[in-house]
Amino acid sequence: MREAKHEYRGTIHQRQRELMLRWYERLDQSAETGEPAAVSLMISGNCVELLEAFGATPLYPEVNALQLAIRHQSLEPILAAEELGYAADNCAYVKADIGCYLKGITPTGGKLPKPALVLCNFVGCNTYIKWFEHTAALTGSQLYVIDVPFCREARPGAADVAYVVRQLHEVVAILEGVTGRKFDLERFRQAVRCAARVEDLWSEIKHLARRSPSPVDAYFDAITLMGPLYVYRGSPEGVAFFELALEELSAKAERGQGVYDQEKFRLVMEGPPPYPYFRTFRDMFAKWKATAVASTYSTVGGLWEFGFRHDPEEPFESVARHMLEQNVCNRNYLQRYEQLRRYVEEWNADGVIIHFVKSCRLFSAGQGDMRDYFTRTLGVPTLYIESDLEDPRYFAEAQTRTRIDAFFEALEHAKRTGGGRYAVSLSTESACRTPQLKVIP
Amino acid sequence: MKIAAGVDVGSTQTKAVIMRGNGGRPEIVARALVDTGANVRKAAENGFAACCRNAGMAPGGVGLVVGTGYGRYNVTFGQAQMTEITCHARGAQFVFPGTRTVIDMGGQDSKAISVGRSGEVLDFVMNDKCAAGTGRFLANAADVMGIGQDEIGPLSLEATRPVKITTVCTVFVESDILSYLAQGKKPEDILGGVHLAIARRTLSLARRVPIEAEITMTGGVARNIGMVTALREVLGMDIQISPDAHFMGAIGAALFALEKLDESFESGVWRPEHASGSGD
Among A145, A441, B178, B273, which is 20 to 30 Å from A390 by CA? Predict the structure, then answer.
């Protein structure tokens, strides 16, 4: 892979690599010996703290899939799944993962363990439920689907929380059975305590991006940090990693060092990146010295920059709340609009980039309206591009480059002249109004 | 007097324009059109060389060259590159100063561009990674019917009962057309249906940027009178067409090149460092 000229490489990148390799070693060990127990888990609002209480290790098929894609190895398992009958427009993450089981492929060349439990912790996407059902069928592992109600209102009700907590207790009983370990509430509290500390640190890192220049790219760099965030959040290793990350990035901020020698544009990114062309895609923004100061993708596993923390005093309830309301996938669209709007305003961004994922209807449906809302109602320059997060066949480099270059050509003109639609102020009340749902007769 | 050029390397054809500026409104000195073919770099060179010949000047007489279009980075003799989106907007506003919307239909993509008063891009949308609604769709339809590309537009105007084309897929449209031919439908009615199908698809694209008068159509498909007529019909608005519609991207690029040559120009639209960005 080609290194981007402007990319920051610090101690945290090395440490991240070590941590993630160790995680893969644990999965290899699990494949060989059954220890530690591996539990298949979704990233969206993951409950890794509960696994930590049992000494189990999460097995994130999404992380496996993206690691394969970034290494240009995703097409082979995708084609294997399509040969089995998966449709061309099925979620490419699903096909890559199923193909991995069929072909015995892993990103590191190791083995995929047989999960002690296939725990479907996100049901907002119907495809995900089917995915985990298939994984359980392929591996012969036990399946448990946590029914997490979609966030219909601003906050989930007490009944929603109680409903999820009740199911978490059932998961505890299953984990006791598959791991042979008795549940230790204190160990669970400790994992939740670690998570809360990691969330403090991660949130501070996210807020460093409000500075100008931002010392961190909250999309491309954030993706580096998201691995440890989801795998190690409930452990002291996670705390140590994020303490190091905050220290390193804060020092950068104090020196006034940005992602580039000169920060020319500040962006908010919506949607996951095209992992098969990750470097190419990043370079398209690096060319214009455009830093992502915030992103919704970095909140798929949890949304902490607006204040939510896990609570060791209420470990089950806070895990349930996190699963219900504090991750971008389980929130409704207007909440996502509001999240993006706050990023644009509070992180002082010049524009929004929406990356539509061809094979993910859940994340991408409605992004055309989102573009209209930001462009027309708020006057925020917004670029809409399409490809896929996993399937390399959907990426058209020349088209993507033209759109991105044209966006920056227009943005540069608008910034320099202060004219045109792009100059609409975000601070006016009318411009900040969040759209209301309309009932179409 | 300043002389500058724009070279628009498109997927199908390469367009080059040389312009002259002497303080007033710039003038077009010469144009050239060559097929892009497989060697994109060579097409850029050939297009520029042909344009210089048409202008009766040596390439050294051109002060600055801006490349645009998909092959813009292959204009290696040029000093800068800009996207065809920015260049079409600028070119259209130069030819028709009241332009607020540009509909650009080229060989492999179509775009709707919302344009500001000084020719700046306010917003744009492009077709998906699919040739529906592009010149390629029309070329395929012409091929399957055995009619020349230059003839399909005028012939479509003779349609009395345009057929319904149910697909907008460039590949599947062939089977639709063959099916209608087998049913004995008249070629003009089939072509009328084909042009209307593309016009409707383009309309849905254009509605995603505000469609404001005046509308200017650019790109190679603007030479197809059947397409222009169908678009006017579905839009319910007038569409301006210049004889230079095909060259609009190259004109825009040449204007940016002239502005850079003009020391007093300070709009800041263009920066030479963009010519060789780190990502390329």
Answer: A145
